[in-house]
């Protein structure tokens, strides 16, 4: 199974995550502050990191930012606040998912499973081209008019999902279930935040993601 790192300054939370993750067959390392977490990440290649925001020595945002300078390890971020700012900041740093405390351990494990599945290649067409957008599925690289565009993991997954379902009206709920990979309980504005960030990186093709008032979104290659 997977090699995980659980990071939180609350020992009972780390122990809870470890117990449920190990029950699922995963191997788990733990850390109780950001500096220790970053040190472990530099020494080990984790399959996924569960990372709290508010921690001593170094907060989760700083850990994630420094981590992204070297690795693309999937990150699920934890927060007791759940503010729009925290979510948007996390997604801009390239996190894969966001969980608000208190959380259900079983729901967290479902999200871990979904994120791990999304980051495992297999059976995908290598290249998809729509207008001036080209997606290299195996390398997870995106090019806009021939220029490589740096997308976060979530932006990449969202764009891939849109293109593979072009012309189809997609509700926010359907997008959440498909891209996040679980039955989402929470604020469906998560989709809107991610689409806003994605549109900003598509240049002249931002209009291809069409807003359907009262419904959701549609990818229209003729827009």
Overview of this structure, please?
- The chain has helices at 11-23, 34-43, 60-68, 84-92, 105-118, 153-164, 172-180, 189-199, and strands at 3-7, 27-31, 48-52, 75-79, 97-100, 127-130, 133-136, 141-144, 147-149, 170-171, 209-212, 216-219.
- The chain has 223 residues and is α/β, with parallel strands linked by helices.
- It folds into two domains: 3-118, Response regulator (Rossmann fold, 3-Layer(aba) Sandwich); 127-219, Arc Repressor Mutant, subunit A, CATH 1.10.10.
- A five-stranded parallel sheet has the order 2-1-3-4-5, with helices on both faces. A four-stranded antiparallel sheet has the order 6-7-8-9, covered by helices on one side. It has a three-stranded antiparallel sheet with strand order 10-12-11.
- A hairpin with a 2-residue loop joins strand 6 (127-130) and strand 7 (133-136).
- Helix 2 (34-43) packs parallel to helix 3 (60-68), helix 4 (84-92) crosses helix 8 and helix 6 packs across helix 7.
- It is globular.
- The mean pLDDT is 86.
